[in-house]
Design brief:
alpha+beta; single chain; Nucleotidyltransferase, domain 5; GIY-YIG endonuclease; four-stranded antiparallel sheet
Length: about 450
Amino acid sequence: MPVTPRYPRLAFVDLETTGGAAADDRITEVGIIEVDADGVREWSTLVNPGMPIPPFIQSLTGITNAMVADAPSFAAVADDIAARLADRVFIAHNARFDYGFLKNEFRRTGHEFHPPVLCTVRLSRKLFPGLARHNLDSLVERHRLNVTERHRALGDAQLIWQFWQKLRDEHTVDAIEEAMAKLLNRPTVPSKLDPSQIESIPSSHGVYLFYGENDLPLYIGKSNDLRRRVLAHFSGDHMSAREQQMSQQIERVEWRETPGELGALLLEAKLVKELKPAYNRQLRQNDEVCSWRLLPNKGRLLPVLTTTEDLFFGYDPNLFGLFVSPRKAGDALRAIADAHMLCHVLLGLEKGKAGKPCFASQVGKCSGACAGRESLASHNERVAAALEGWRLQPWPFRGAIAIREGDALHIVDCWAYLGTVNTLTDATALLRQSQPRFDRDVYQILQRWLPQLDWRIIVL
């Protein structure tokens, strides 16, 4: 089966390199097998990587420094390689490795390289889901492939080509093409967005920002793999109507790498509040965030509504609940009162006359503390118990802290993220110019993270 009707031009590719990091290591050998209606053509070349080949790699591949000393540089063969791969499905085993190296080398030489990429590891998993291992040695043993030169570019490309031909022994062309279609289902980049922007996005922790016409912020998100997450937004199989509408408006993508997941969470929450993107709903403004503060008042415990404008917000141990508006706070307190038969008048939710039963008491929904049928002490105890599950944790440090993540320091004070710096000196300077204000989203993020961060925290 040299070709399939739907995919008539194929290129089976393997590389040998000086190491595993595409950004730092270089290619030492390229092997390509071109398959199309005109037949099968094999080609390979050694490549001078411009750097020493580590002894372990020399032992593994058999390619020595002496062998590549007089070989052409990648730049010298880039045009030839690009021509051989043009308009073909790029097929490799663990294709992300080979594609990543070629993409970086082509970028250095000024070539565009955006082929449809098919990974035969993923294809094997798709077509043989009951089998545990899908590395190249396992395929050789399982499908009885003929090994010529293992760990040499053309030899391994030949193994991939043999595996491709063996597929028809157990699967129909339709089944193979269906699996390919799913694995090659690359997201369509929005029409107003330059595809080269997507290619530049790293596969690292960080925050991404979509912009529309007139550089209007549309959406801000976070991810542990920026490139994969951004591409997922453009996958037609999973886009909601809202995402489709947003996708049509995207003209620019920006991203900011972070040292880890916590940094991405904190930065996302901060940027959403600063830029107010049109399609973000989950991370809201803090302007109306409020809580109930339980205070003694004439022998009773009275919930008093307080907001983040109050300087003690975040420090006071007697704050209960986080609400987006006074109305939401009132609704929640009424529900608690009804569930525990607490008096609406004593809680300040309704007006009433001293010593007179409230309306809820008259219909059996209040225990009667308003009319003397329950002592204020008993009512106070039940109020405190009913609200206990809502209690906000007060800021547990004597001041600001630095949370170390990688080589960076995230500065937080009173549940407010102030920024990320590289040194304690920078942290001190940041604190001088910052006015922390309780941030609901940072509070919720750190509630999950603080228990596992003890060893990373520096109290400033």
